[in-house]
């Protein structure tokens, strides 16, 4: 299937819905991962850092800015996620279509011949094809949108007093390419395995679930795809979360010398928080990614099937 405009529209709609619904998860996760001031900052003994809880952080945000404060940074998130999701889903679909033309990557040429009632329209690939298509598409789009990711993270943080998207981007751009692409190494190390693992599990779960629970309508199929997407995202999220913590530290705490590079950030997290520091915000990211994948892929494949048939 070559309809790029159809895929872009479906991807943008899925990104819009997921962002508006799940922004509070991203906001609280960023606040937890950014870290804070040590509880014994004025003492001569080594600093001791405490981990804020999800409930405590949420209460502080609501106390300071009201319930609407939980959606702080939504504009930056929409700028990043709507076109980002549209381009990612379109890229991965086009890449899968390309790989499906090669016998090594095509799971079964007969499976790619058409679209039956309630079936997925995505090309069927081997595990190698799923892994490559997901990883390549995700890293490529991540590089393209990394400056917006930096702006999004800093808007969600309370360490920057940005008053508008324009002033935020201008401030970051003044730092040059090193600031615009800050955290990209950690982002790539998170996104490549995440997307690859996700696509392998997602396609495998869809294949098995459709044989066990055959669907009779597009709505039932969309629900099945949502459940498969949510489950696959759960596995991929847990496996890659430490890199998300590192990425957030790099993008938000660039003024701190110990967070200036990838290795120094890894070391600083270990010194400050130990092994558990690499899991800061995991419950929030897990909840956000699971629901986001369920919404995003469910809507995307549903719209593609319906529009493809029309």
From TrEMBL:
It holds the Pfam family Mito_carr. Signal peptide: none annotated. It is found in: Mitochondrion inner membrane; Mitochondrion membrane. InterPro entries: Hem25/SLC25A38, MCP, MCP_dom_sf, MCP_transmembrane. It is a multi-pass membrane protein. It catalyses: glycine(in) = glycine(out). It comes from the Eukaryota. PROSITE patterns: SOLCAR. Keywords: Membrane, Mitochondrion, Mitochondrion inner membrane, Repeat, Transmembrane, Transmembrane helix, Transport. SUPFAM superfamilies: Mitochondrial carrier. Solcar repeats lie at residues 2-98, 125-208, 220-306. Mitochondrial glycine transporter that imports glycine into the mitochondrial matrix. Plays an important role in providing glycine for the first enzymatic step in heme biosynthesis, the condensation of glycine with succinyl-CoA to produce 5-aminolevulinate (ALA) in the miochondrial matrix. Belongs to the mitochondrial carrier (TC 2.A.29) family. SLC25A38 subfamily. HAMAP family: SLC25A38. PANTHER family: MITOCHONDRIAL GLYCINE TRANSPORTER (PTHR46181). This is Mitochondrial glycine transporter.
């Amino acid at each position: 299937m070559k309809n790029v405009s159809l895929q872009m529209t479906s991807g943008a709609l899925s990104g819009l819905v997921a962002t508006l619904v799940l922004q509070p998860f991203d906001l609280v996760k960023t606040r937890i991962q950014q870290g804070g001031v040590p509880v014994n900052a004025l003492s001569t003994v080594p600093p001791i850092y405490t981990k804020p809880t999800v409930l405590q952080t949420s209460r502080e945000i609501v106390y300071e800015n009201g319930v609407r404060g939980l959606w702080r940074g939504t504009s930056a998130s929409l700028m990043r996620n709507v076109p980002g999701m549209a381009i990612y889903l379109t890229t991965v679909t086009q890449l899968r279509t390309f790989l499906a033309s090669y016998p090594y990557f095509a799971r079964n040429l007969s499976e790619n011949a058409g679209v039956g009632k309630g079936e997925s329209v995505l090309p069927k690939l081997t595990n190698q094809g799923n892994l490559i298509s997901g990883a390549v598409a995700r890293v490529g789009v991540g590089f393209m949108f990394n400056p917006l990711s930096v702006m999004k993270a800093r808007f969600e943080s309370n360490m920057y007093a940005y008053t508008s998207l324009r002033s935020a981007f201008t401030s970051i751009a003044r730092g040059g390419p090193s600031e615009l692409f800050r955290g990209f190494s950690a982002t790539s190390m998170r996104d490549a395995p995440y997307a690859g693992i996700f696509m392998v599990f997602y396609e495998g779960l869809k294949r098995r679930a459709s044989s066990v629970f055959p669907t009779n309508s597009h709505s039932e199929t969309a629900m099945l795809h949502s459940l498969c997407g949510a489950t696959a995202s759960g596995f991929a999220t847990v496996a890659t979360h430490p890199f998300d913590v590192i990425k957030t530290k790099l993008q938000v705490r660039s003024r701190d010398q110990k967070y200036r590079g990838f290795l120094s950030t890894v070391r600083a997290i270990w010194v400050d928080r130990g092994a558990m520091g690499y899991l800061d915000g995991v419950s929030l990211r897990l909840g956000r990614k699971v629901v986001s994948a369920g919404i995003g892929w469910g809507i995307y494949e549903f719209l593609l099937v319906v529009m493809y048939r029309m």
